[in-house]
Design goal:
The chain is α+β, with helices and mostly antiparallel strands. The protein has helices at 33-47, 90-100, 136-147, 167-170, 203-214, and strands spanning 16-24, 63-65, 74-84, 105-112, 124-132, 153-158, 161-166, 171-176, 187-195, 223-233, 236-238. It folds into 2 domains: 16-119, 2-Layer Sandwich (Alpha-Beta Plaits); 123-233, Alpha-Beta Plaits, CATH 3.30.70. Strands 1, 2, 3, 4, 5, 8, 9, 10 and 11 form a 9-stranded mixed beta sheet that branches.
């Protein structure tokens, strides 16, 4: 087997680290993390960015991803880090990527950050969950029951088997917003902030717990969006 031919940038030293905040919108919320990874690798090439590569037999572009949302969930706050071999302006990188990426993956902001996006700076996420067919009067009592619990054990089947987790301890704040604009006259939205836990507790796990305590069930698939992620403090969600 012949050795792959490395790109022109593969042997150059890294001189700049860029943090990219991007959104998954529309149909792209159904893209898997692997699909998004491939889209960014193609987009970086098409954008002509001087991406650094790993050493070894098969060099890979140095793109590091923070934990992404699951397939079917939208997001306004996904993060990745790019390592470049020559310096570029943040707005130049943003513009080039947006011109090269598919519709539905939108780069919101690019910043220079030598540390990348370490997990220690991404400890919580803010979510919005639209619940079709439900009203504030349906949802508010269920929230009150849930918040009164010390623990809310739920189970979810993962690729590692059946996992048991505590949905209550992951939730920092939980409330109901005004009626959501979904085209459905009856639809409200949960607004929640959740800690990043191991194993990860997801918004759909909180919905499972709400159903367990009150038989709460939307009439159609909930629409889940990550609004922000970072560290949660006295001032609310602090983005990295």
């Amino acid at each position: 087997m012949s050795r792959p031919v490395p790109s022109d940038n593969s042997q150059l030293p890294a001189v700049q680290h860029m943090v990219v905040r991007y959104a998954k919108r529309g149909k792209m919320r159904f893209a898997s993390h692997r699909d998004v990874t491939r889209a960014f690798e193609r987009g970086v090439r098409r954008a002509g960015l001087p991406i650094a590569h790993s050493a070894g037999f098969t060099p890979h572009p140095k793109i590091s991803y923070a934990g992404g949302v699951q397939t079917g969930v939208a997001s306004e706050a996904e993060y990745l880090s790019l390592t470049l071999t020559s310096r570029r302006g943040a707005e130049d990188v943003r513009g080039r990527l947006n011109a090269a990426l598919p519709d539905g993956i939108d780069v919101i902001a690019v910043t220079e950050d030598a540390g990348g996006v370490p997990a220690s700076r991404l400890t919580a996420s803010a979510w919005r969950v639209v619940l079709p067919g439900l009203t504030r009067q349906d949802v508010a009592p269920a929230i009150a029951k849930f918040l009164a619990l010390d623990h809310a054990p739920v189970e979810r089947l993962t690729h590692k088997g059946l996992r048991r987790m505590d949905a209550r301890t992951a939730v920092i704040t939980l409330g109901v917003s005004d009626e959501a604009d979904t085209g459905d006259s009856a639809a409200v939205a949960l607004e929640m902030v959740m800690r990043h836990t191991t194993p990860a507790v997801r918004p759909d796990d909180v919905l499972t717990a709400l159903r367990d305590v009150s038989d709460l069930a939307p009439t159609a698939q909930p629409f889940i969006t990550r609004l922000a992620q970072g560290a949660f403090g006295e001032s609310g969600m602090v983005q990295p």
